[in-house]
């Protein structure tokens, strides 16, 4: 290259940089117009299908109302594990969990969520409920009808880990409550739950993992899971392979939601996040909730879908444990009753 050519190249570089900068600036403006805002919903394991319907429905409503184009991303896993991820820095705009204690953690640790989060939306910020039911193999070869059948010798029960999964935690609480409601005291309830977990061959981290263990790996005689998950399996995996069994008594599991205040204030997404959660209470949102076999709060919607929800005697967490927070401290904190049960079962197997 000649000296004149090198000089010419040096003169051309600033011009090229200027053109590239202008191009990037224009492109950036275009991309911003295409994606005006983005939300991240960090949710629990078995809501994947629900939010695949909820998200596009809300995006359509929001754009019609504001003209803003919105993208909603999802993260799923065991409820408690998801809460820990948010506490550790995962920037969720909203959390949609299956137990209030997982949102309380976010309120207590660094004030990610407002302490009065329950008061910010109707029904204690829980737009729907579910309950624990049984999924058995077609024909119910072990003749499983109620909770007492799960403690019989030779019955393999699939349950997600109560330490990481709200699904597993509600199974534990439902079994404990069943023993109490049938005349047992705490010692009898502890023994009952101990015998149930002695029949659990594997503890998956979340509800969807437990579903895979039961339906695809062929492990276990019965899967204890949320009603919506059992209905989804029966519909999509095949009603010719499984039956749903409703016990005589089960627990009401509320599914709370909250805006993650610190994140939305940092990202400027509070209005979108708040409207997104409010949409869950709308007639359209409640219809989609019922479609996915979660029990809606709207009485008219629930009545329209009455055939999808078998009447079932339910008890609340408060009626047996005082509150979910008290149940957490007594049963699931380190060295709590659940840990005592697991340690005792391990010793007995040796």
What does this structure look like?
The strands form two sheets. Strands 4, 5, 6, 7, 8, 10 and 11 form a seven-stranded mixed sheet that branches. The chain has a four-stranded mixed sheet with strand order 2-1-3-9. The chain has 16 helices and eleven strands. Helix 3 runs parallel beside helix 4 (100-108), helix 6 crosses helix 7 (186-198) and helix 7 packs across helix 16. By secondary structure, it is α/β, with parallel strands linked by helices. The model is unreliable at 2-33 (pLDDT under 50). The protein has three domains: 1-32; 35-127 and 255-281, Periplasmic binding protein-like II (D-Maltodextrin-Binding Protein, domain 2, 3-Layer(aba) Sandwich), CATH 3.40.190; 129-251 and 312-349, D-Maltodextrin-Binding Protein, domain 2.
- Helix amount: 40-55%
Radius of gyration: 25 Å
Q: What's the CATH class label of the largest domain? A: Alpha Beta
Describe the global form: globular
Distance between the termini: 81 Å
Indicate the proportion of strand residues: 5-15%
CATH superfamily of the largest domain: Periplasmic binding protein-like II
Count of helix runs: 16
Biggest β-sheet strands, sense, barrel: 7 strands, mixed
